[in-house]
Amino acid sequence: MSGLPTLRIATAGSVDDGKSTLIGRLLHDTKTVFEDQLAAVARASRRYGDGEVNLALLTDGLRAEREQGITIDVAYRYFATPQRNFIVADTPGHQQYTRNMVTGASTADVAIVLVDARHGVVEQTRRHAFIASLLGVRAIALAVNKMDLVGWDHGVFEVIAKEATAYVEALPDPVAVVAFPISALEGDNLVERSDRAPWYAGPALLPWLEQFDADLVADQRGARLDVQRVLRPQGSDYRGYAGRLADGPLAVGDTVTMLPSGRRSTVVGLQRHGAAVESAAPGHAVAVELADDVDIARGDVLVAGDHGVRVSEEVEGTLCWMIDTPLRAGTRLWFKHGTRTGRAVVDEVVHVHDVTSASRFAADEVGLNDLAVVRLTLSEPVAAMSYRVSREGGRMILVDEATNVTAGALLISEPVRPS
Amino acid sequence: MSTDTSLRNLTLAGTDAHLESLVDEAITIIREVATECENPVLLFSGGKDSAVLLHLALLAFAPARLPFPVLHVDTGHNFPEVIDYRDEFVRNAGVRLLVASVQESIDAGRVVEDAGPRASRNRLQSVTLLDAITEHGFDAAFGGGRRDEDKARAKERIVSFRDRHGRWDPRNQRPEPWDVLNARIRKGEHLRAFPLSNWTELDIWRYIAVAAVPLPSIYFSHRRTVVERDGMLLNVGGPVVLEPGEVSFEETVRYRTVGDMSCTGAVRSDAATIDDVLAEVAAARITERGATRADDTFSESAMEDRKREGYF
Questions:
Q1: Which of A2, A23, A78 to probe the B interface (max B CBs under 10 A)?
Q2: Can you give the pTM of this predicted structure?
């Protein structure tokens, strides 16, 4: 509840690497766990476990999860320290629930990837590091857990940290990796530095998260507004184009370009939270009034300044595929990009990523939980950007026509061909 | 109680970035689901979370009117102060109120009421709610549920799918990458949308304080005749009748949550103002549901089980 913005964290890693225990420990040690929750966990621990209070049960909220001792879906948790607010997505480790891991990691600033010190870097470590870097987390905190079970061996920690860092550096979207030797069960190096690893000179995990700066100043560019709805009060001339501002600031007096029409106009009014404002920043939910009486509808995009948007009916990007039915050239889907929806057809599966070796191979189809580069043709042009440059302009969901289930998350890459 | 507040002149000036970003997120969700769906409704119980939700919904479309009605599922065991408050709030806000009555579901033989001192109409609400959704053809229902309330709620998507039977399948939820919300459904299915998913109890109270959201008087300390039952202080009267051996007494209390009188407990409290309540909530060591809701303490999966059946 102070100056630094809320930090969104996703935990990832293989089954039994201790994700839920880590979060339970963070909640417990920051005094976020209430007495009745702790009592309920103690009761459940007696029922499902060996009698030790199992802090993982704080986040494993579904009956099936407690019975099977695994995490199926993302659990969201909230805590605050005097430094800042945190939102934590505890994501599943099982490969079959990768779609839920993608859900949890898609909004994260930092991914905490856990590794069991006894087993080292395994396939799920690589998969999750790959997905987290692809989704654009600002850093990966590599939590080398269960250090107590390897006698706090410095050499073990070094080998794991080096292997994981080298892997992430070779990925298509490398990101900083910071390694922490921890014991989630015992609480070592989580809230305070532990004296069990005198060879470790870095900070404990929580203090590092408290000071982490997730804002990239270099990202500042022209504003983007995907129009959700036109606000038209009865008996009034007011026309407010409502949406959530992205990419850059917008102020009264700014010139904006409407896409896909390309017409230009001037901002004459801005409103946020029901009140008039002179300017707004990325993330703000606003309504924009323009000087000219123009034809703008849901799905259209307003951009300002040097935005770099290209309007296109063809997109290429990296796809996280999340349903059993394989995707192939010719597969038809619904798409949603910003507030624009329409139909999409797959032109080509360019290649599939091998997450184990961070290499790629040619393939005709994309299976459940695969990461692949694909090309699509859309029924409507979209104002697209590279995901690396603009989260809002570069992301698209694909929806299965038969079931309406969200089937894929597409991260648009460059170049996007102009139509 | 006063519900006299301007809903058109809110500024969050002086609050911190965390609360402002929660408001931005909630307004974006409300606008998106209301625009993607054809016939949405907002579930309004008169409790603090639904009051904040309705307040935000009014802001989301201002200066235009709220483009959908609000629905109250009335158990017939509501606190009279809450019903008065509900009527005044919707009248002042110019919102269309629909009421779905659990009593009518009982009279029509759609549900059978439990007997005994611990009987509650809480669970029966699911049937009344689903019937109302079917009757009015609603394709989306906004709810004030928060992920910090309960471990089953902690798992729920912002836009949460319900099949033709109104069921939630927690083992097989739709993926929800980013905040690109998928509101696609087939006829007969519907969505629940939770714009306050990422709010905590403290965030709710901070918003109530800065935005001057009107609340039912029972959220603030007052004298009340209560009985202690299963560790909870229940209001004596209405559905709660003293059992042999039970003794009623006067106590200074307030309510942390507002639900059915039969299962919503009061807490001992001197917190008479919003600032008092904020201080109390910040120092609380027991969750609001654990402290005040008999319905959630029956079993460790109580909320999950009710949600699977179509509960809020």
A1: A78
A2: 0.92
